[in-house]
Amino acid sequence: MRKHIVPYLFVFVIGISVFYSSCSVQNNLARTEKRTTPDSYAGTKDSINSATISWKTFFKDQNLIALIDSALVNNQELNILLQEIAISKNEIRARKGEYLPFVDVGGGAGVEKSGRYTRNGAVDATTEIDPGKENPDPLPNYLIGFDASWEVDIWKKLRNAKKSAMYRYLATTEGRNFMVTNLVTEISSAYYELQALDNQLELLKNIIDIQKNALEIIKAEKAAAKVSELAVRKFEAEVFKNQSAQYFIMQKIVETENKINFLVGRFPQPVVRNSATLMENAPDTLQAGIPSQLLENRTDIRQAEMELIASKLDVKVARANFYPSFRINAGLGFEAFNPKFIIKTPESMLYSLAGNLAAPLINRNAIKAFYYSANAKQIQAAYNYERTILNGYIEVVNQFSNINNLQKSYDLKKAQVEALTRSVDISIGLFKAARADYMEVLLTQRDALESRFELIETRKMQMIATVNMYRALGGGWK
Predict the structure, then answer these.
(1) Are 455 and 410 in contact (CB under 8 A)?
(2) Phi, psi (degrees; rounded to nearest 5) at 340
(3) In sequence order, which ranges of 224-325 are alpha helices (DSSP H)?
(4) Which has the closest alpha carbon to 88: 26, 174, 206, 213?
(5) Mean pLDDT, the chain, whole residue set
């Protein structure tokens, strides 16, 4: 009667375990559908998107293209991330191996001496392999064989773990693309800043030459007793001030060059550039497309999406830990006390086959903690995904507004520079005709210099805003 009860009792216990496992934890899976985006940016619904343009096409300056090309090969931070990608790829390989059978081959040799009045010693003394010949004492033992172990992935726990590792690998790949985008943006922004500094330094040198000529005129006027020593000293001080300002700009040039050198992964050296193109070429007009394209073009959004999918799979893996696991163990080999008998079959052959089914029943706090942590991480990933989309949309809107406002500012600033440039010539003419004093000439020159500096600064900001817009749309990594 007991022989018939035991199998049913075993099945009943396993059934209770599975039922208890499925009912003991709450399913806190977050709702992680793709977040919807607005239909347009400021009412525009043109689907043409500048993010699809390759960075080699987007940038026209060959010197800048050469710098970016070099950085993509030599930048240390990018190369560190490439090793992270290799690590993630190896994780997939490890996870894949876990749901395949493990097979080991091995051999061994040993010797055993059992006491005469023990069970093994008594058996050895009465057993004869060869008639009339006692067994060896002590008894050697030689073994060679194969061991196999395989966990049957009933609940897809191991396969889901492998898929999770795959999506994390894809996430690191997208992370690498996002770093490429940021690297392109950093180098190009520093390059435009360097061009602006060159233009400001050149402008300052020209102004100093003009002011030196004006100083000579003032000295001649003083010699003719038309102005006082104060006018000479005022103009002289202005020349000294601008000469001193040169060195601050020169220091900024050195630091900006070395910033680029660091990003390119090389020691300090001059950066080849053509600074005249900054003021000659207007920024390109970018097409923003529609917001839903951010989900495909922005690599940080795609990275967050891959992380979200991986976290959902982690929850499934954690939940599967509550269910019974089924493992099959098998072995096949040869064993004998003398090497000449080890390949004699079937006498020396040994084999085994066993199946184990086990489920956690009592004190499963560690499994619950792992499951709840996986749930919390999935919810974190969902919020991070939404935050990344929201951040991408806001960045595009901000840069779209920035580009428009900078263009209006540049046009007005250019008109201001033209007006003040004419004012300088007029003030000098009036001063020679004794119809204006030296302070009017001095202040007009100072205003003209400041406006030209601001014009260069505005153009630099325009170029950087264009690059930032390109990055915000998801360009720069292809």
Answers:
(1) yes
(2) -75, -15
(3) 229-264, 277-280, 294-297, 299-320
(4) 174
(5) 86
Burial class of residue 227 (count of CB atoms within 10 Å of its CB; 0-12, 13-18, 19+): buried
DSSP secondary structure, 169-237, as one string: HHHHHHHHHHHHHHHHHHHHHHHHHHHHHHHHHHHHHHHHHHHHHHHHHHHHHHHTTSS-HHHHHHHHH
Question: In DSSP terms, which residues pair with 110 in a beta bridge?
Answer: 141
For range 331-335, the mean pLDDT: 91
How big is the chain, counted in residues? 478
Per-residue buried b or exposed e for 240-257, using 16+ beta carbons within 10 Å of the residue's own CB: eebeebeeebeebbeebb
Q: What's the rounded Cα separation, in Å, for the pair 103 and 163? A: 23
Confidence of residue 54 (pLDDT cuts 50, 70, 90): very high
Is-contact 191 64, C-beta < 8 A? yes
Structural contact between residues 464 and 192, judged by C-beta atoms closer than 8 angstroms:
yes
pTM, rounded to two decimals: 0.83
In whole angstroms, how far apart are CA 373 and each of 162, 266, 359? 19, 44, 21
Reduced to 3 states (helix: H, G, I; strand: E, B; else coil), residue 25 is coil
Tell me, what's the pLDDT at 127? 64
Query: Can you read off the two tokens belonging to residue 147?
Result: 């061991």
Phi-psi region of 222 (alpha: psi -120 to 50; beta: other; left: phi over 0): alpha
| Cα within 13 Å of Cα(74), Cβ side | 14
Q: How far, in whole angstroms, is CA 56 from its chain's centroid?
A: 21
| Distance from C-alpha of 446 to C-alpha of 425, rounded to nearest angstrom | 13
Distances in whole angstroms, Cα of residue 39 to Cα of each of 54, 291, 382, 398, 399: 25, 6, 22, 17, 18
DSSP per-residue string spanning 114-181: --TTSHHHHHHHH--SBTTBPPPSSEEEEEEEEEEEEEE-TTSHHHHHHHHHHHHHHHHHHHHHHHHH
The percent of the chain in helix, strand and coil, each rounded to the nearest 5, is: 65, 10, 25
Residue 41 DSSP class: B
